[in-house]
Specification:
Layout lengths: L8 H4 L3 H5 L1 H15 L4 E2 L7 H5 L7 E5 L24 H14 L10 H5 L2 E5 L4 E2 L11 H13 L6 E5 L1 H6 L13 E5 L16 H11 L13
């Protein structure tokens, strides 16, 4: 699965057992078969693990969990909620920007490209890392969830305190095992409604996760995240 795929070295050994496991071999076979049938798969193969390539394990400060990649042409590039430069900012990300502006006064960017966050230690991880064009949730239940559970366990096992931003019930259930401070652990788990237009008014707006994350990082001797996104 990692042949020809960019994946930061810091993740390779911790996840070696997952890549060698039968479920990952089956997942690889599924993706090969899908492509052989002429189906368009997003993101492109070299970007399946883009989140893990841009954010080394030992630099993770914040984890934001998504569900599936965007399934529209040219959108997905391996980071949850992020789209490539030149692509219209999706509604959920627009709402994330609104909350960021309300919380920290950060001016809303004119694009949806979040690699600047990833480079600072924000792991933008989808639960499922591939999707068929135009078919939302089409690759759920094929093995990716088990793999990304293993990624979260690796972050959870580190000594450095990390902030988990869990938006919506799906993310909250997936990361329910995280060793959170409210259970006597070391990681800060922040929960809110999903930023989707369908649910953002039910508790996402006003959650102040960005300022709370930075305050926690600063209190624990870690450099806060610069949430401002430069022009691209």
């Amino acid at each position: 699965m990692t042949d020809g795929v960019k994946l930061h070295e810091s993740w390779r050994e911790p996840l070696a057992g997952e890549f060698a496991a039968p479920y990952m071999q089956a997942l690889k076979g599924f993706l090969v078969a899908q492509k052989a049938e002429g189906k368009r798969i997003f993101p492109k193969g070299s970007e399946y693990f883009r989140a893990l390539d841009l954010t080394p394990l030992d630099t993770v400060k914040v984890v934001i969990l998504g569900q599936d990649p965007y399934h529209g042409l040219g959108q997905a590039h391996g980071l949850c909620f992020s789209v490539q430069p030149g692509v219209r900012t999706p509604p959920s990300l627009v709402n994330i920007y609104k909350e960021l502006e309300s919380d920290l006064g950060v001016k809303r960017p004119r694009h949806g490209f979040l690699e600047h966050w990833a480079a600072q230690g924000v792991l933008l991880l989808n639960s499922v890392l591939t999707v068929e064009m135009g078919q939302a949730a089409s690759h759920q239940g094929k093995g990716w969830e088990r793999f990304t559970d293993a990624v979260i366990r690796q972050v959870n096992g580190r000594e450095e305190p990390v902030v988990f931003m869990l938006w919506g019930s799906y993310a909250q259930k997936k990361a329910a095992f995280v060793d959170s401070v409210d259970k006597g652990g070391r990681h800060l788990v922040l929960k809110a409604a999903h930023p989707s237009p369908l649910s953002a008014h039910n508790g996402f707006f006003g959650c102040r996760h960005f300022s709370r994350a930075n305050a926690f990082l600063a209190d624990h001797g870690r450099t806060p995240i610069d949430w401002t996104l430069p022009d691209v």
